[in-house]
Amino acid sequence: xxxxxxxxxxxxxxxxxxxxxxxxxxxxxxxxxxxxxxxxxxxxxxxxxxxxxxxxxxxxxxxxxxxxxxxxxxxxxxxxxxxxxxxxxxxxxxxxxxxxxxxxxx
Length: 106
Hints:
Layout: E1 2-4, E2 7-11, E3 16-19, E4 25-27, E5 30-34, E6 39-42, E7 48-50, E8 53-57, E9 62-65, E10 70-73, E11 76-80, E12 85-87, E13 93-96, E14 99-103
Parallel strand pairs: 1-4, 2-5, 3-6, 4-7, 5-8, 6-9, 7-10, 8-11, 9-12, 10-13, 11-14
């Protein structure tokens, strides 16, 4: 699946949610003002989260859970109440070249 070049604004839940979908590309999206996670990846192996702009997020900028071989690269993540990038039991996750600012746990 491809989730590319979308704008998501004023979501009460996650901005982008990928669940049980291997090989998904989440690229070049703008997520602003989400009550949940900016990008949430659950049980989705071989996923790429790249080049997204994520800001004003109620939970985590990017949250990877139970997903192996995931790359989180070249994202701009700011103004997040939780973690910039959070990884729960997952193997072979690369987090590189992201710009993460104004992060705090509420």
